[in-house]
Amino acid sequence: MTISEILNQIKSTSARLVVENSIKLAKENESYHALLNLTSERALKRADEVDSGKITGRLAGVPFVVKDNFLAFGAPTTAASKMLENFNAPLQATAVEKLEAEGAICIGKANLDAFAHGGSTENSAFGPTKNAIDTDRVAGGSSGGSAVITALNVVPFALGSDTGGSIRQPASYNGVVGVKSTYGAVSRYGVVAMASSTDVIGSFATNVADAELVTDIISGRDERDMTTLPDFFKVQPNAKPGQKIGLVSDFMTDGVDSEVREKINQYVEKLRSKGHDVSEVNLPMAEYALAIYYIIVPAELSSNLARYDGIRYGHRAEGIKTLAELYGKTRDQGFVTENKRRIMIGSYVLSSGYFDAYYLQAQKARTLLINEFDKLFEKYDVLIGPTAPTPAFKLGENTADPIKMYINDIMTVPTSLAGLPAISVPAGTNKAGLSIGVQLMGPRQSEAMLLSLARSMEDK
Amino acid sequence: MTQISRDDVLYLAQLSSLELDETEIDGLQADLSNILGYVQQLNKLDTTNVEPTYQVTGLSSVWRDDTVIDFGISRQELLALSPEVVDNQIKVPKVL
Domain residue spans in chain B? Predict the structure, then answer.
């Protein structure tokens, strides 16, 4: 269902009926475990206020879901962790507030890898989310719940966060549109922090036009997040003709699933048939992006997660005798293994004696990667490639080997490190019916251009 | 390959304020060795005279007026988030 179809339904029936139906659908699809909590009571109250005319706006009465690392009213904000299992947010994230100001109605909180650490939603402290197409497979992650609930048509759109691919990769695995904005385009106020230099807020939708509307609403400067940029997003009704597009050959090697490459090549042919000029380009630093990412991101998150100490809020361990024990036991009980793994890697690369060799070298390598992107964007409007090297993998397939799990983000982390906008749109399915996503990447602040190009490529 | 010893794991856990469960230590020792081994490939890169990148906004010295912003949250609401509150103060366990 598109947003405009939902708005028509609300007009001919009522917001209450539409929201009730969405909640009913969410309950019928409980076996996917896409949602951790429903916010039914608050949602229905707001629906009545839409029907009475008290709430108005471009999304008046339209139901949506937020990843459970966004602070929102009506249910706890758990970040899918035991640490915050009973945390009731005293405020709402700016992105949620902006959507509510347009009349949208949040019906639930979506599952994720605990603290958004992961690429499959299997690291949720409350159990994994299942893929919308094949329930033996992963949802992708970390915003797996948001992707699946959108793909199941329970809601027309959902919010997620993307630190290294956490919106784009699950969008690809579940056959929906996923938008990772330019770093700083959308306020992160009220979102549980992971890696401050790459965390970005974005959306999932069933079609590009809906993603554009949501992006338009949530983007813009926020006094409460000093990294936000002045609002630059403006929907471009028509795609610019004759664009110069670079197909990133480093993402199309033999190691990439052949059916994935086939779908990307078909998308490229379609771009050419529409008059765009596509040629192969090289991004040699892409090979190092994952290594850069797994130094910088653990370093930043080890610092951001230091706040969970069992003192002021969140879980506190019982029966302790010393302060070190209070911190240590609280954190041992409140974090999943992947959280601990990353925090400890962060502690390692930041510790004296290793700082220069790991952290500083990674930040320098990051500069080299950004320089390569900048150079390509002097000649090309857009870069294109797969969103992920394979379709959704099986549940449990990669849980024993962290590196195997991390490799699935190899095509999404480069743009995260460079702060560039990138979107994943459905490019078809493989023979088994699993969805494959194509990734469009652009220079800073070019998301409106990327989205208009993707919209012009949609089958009507 | 970077070899992380069992003592390294315990030291990193201490730096990270994590009191690890005995059953997790072996797994973490192997994982941390593998991950740190993987990221060492960056040593191959020549980064002489390359400036590090710490942030990507291009923004610098963001200022705002030094005025009070009302976030609409009461003291009671914030205190209600703590594990234990007595007389408007957060109560912590005795550790001395």
Answer: 6-44
